[in-house]
User: Fold this.
Amino acid sequence: MADVADIEKKRICYGCVGETYLSVKISKEGKRAVCDYCEKSRRAISIATMSELVDIAFQQHYRISRMDMDGYEWAMHKDPESTFEFEPEGDPIDMAIMNAAEISEEAAADIQEVLEDRYSNFESAQIGETTEYDGSLYYHEILPSDRAWQEDWLAFERSLKSESRFFSPQAADLLKKVFSGISNLQTQTGASLITEAGPETELTHLFRARAFQSPGKLKTAIGRPDNELGPPPSPFAGSGRMNARGISVFYGATEPGVAVAEVRPPVGCHVAIGRFEVIRKLRLLDLGTFEKLAATGSIFDPNYSGELSRIRFLRGLTLRIARPVMPDDQELDYLPTQAIADFLAAGLVAPLDGIIFPSVQVAGESRNVVLFHSASRVEKWDVPDDIEIDVSMDSSDEDGSYPDFASFWWRKANDEQSAVATDEADSGFWIEFEQALEKLTPPGGEATLRISPHDVEVRLIEAVEFKSSDYKVRHHEIKAPSDANL
Assistant:
């Protein structure tokens, strides 16, 4: 066996290292020398330095595998009818080093020998105890823990609920760290976490529902959905999962059934559903993609371990944001998600118009969308002053009345025309009206959403179905011991 001191002096060049981060590092920081593995004159570093880099990476990203069988495995191994053979998780240490750094078997064996020597000690050798990087050990790669991120997040939630609700530097710092560079992250298939909605995209329409228990209010909504089915004016905006009271945002869904479920309508009420066209390009952060986040980087980059921890935390963040909240707990439990929405709406980490998140009320791939205040404006109809809107909610035939929802637009009567407009007049007005819809911009900024009289549907809620997990309650009778048994 070669002397360890001699091995440490050997040089390895960037061309003999396949791992990109390491190879680039050696080409930038190494000094020209003859490589001991390819005998070419290139920028190189010593095996002593290379061993230090490997050691730092393995301390962060690898663990020693269990080398002994547990009770079950031992029983399987001793069973004459079993073909079970125990093999530790991962790879032998020299193979683990070779694969991680993408170097030759010879170079990996040299690094293993150097590291084994550094970690060995007399006492362990005396009692036959293996130390780190012993040639008999197996190592397996691990994902760094996100425990620190979880603890910081719990502290963030605690602070909002009980300490500093409106001005919290700690909360702002945490959100910056969590969402920093969010527009550059990708899923395992290379997709962005930010999706586009609007013209020439897959998401061109959003659905918004509103439950009505009063026929009068329902008629108003059918007649003017641009006023009644969009987000409420700020003075009337109640608090929600993604907005504080007084901040008007647009809550919608990608499917009409999801929009209905989210308003939790009581049986017997009517629900009006508006189909809103997204008329300009929007950038939406899709929380549903977080669980598929991909980690890119090198284990030899000292900062990579921290990024992996963040990725692991982000993969579970959607469950925290979209988890069900009981009505009695909404005032406090919505504070963290409201803070997240406010932070993202401010554009501090990326320009965003809203968030897509999984539906709590409907299982599967159903999704909700919240558009921030600046992106929630609905075009207002420019209805001429001489037009009156009437709404009918039923019709009748020989069998009686039946639900039938219709909106009627009437021109007011004057000396020269009757109260009921002619078909020709109606046709001309509708052409003018449809053309006007294409040009409208509401006061206060650019419009994002458009709804026409044709894009309204009414549903009568006749029953509600629940998906549940059922558990039988067991009953036990416990008798106190008699005095004779004491």
Confidence is low (pLDDT under 50) at residues 417-429, 436-444. The first strand starts at residue 11 and ends at 13.
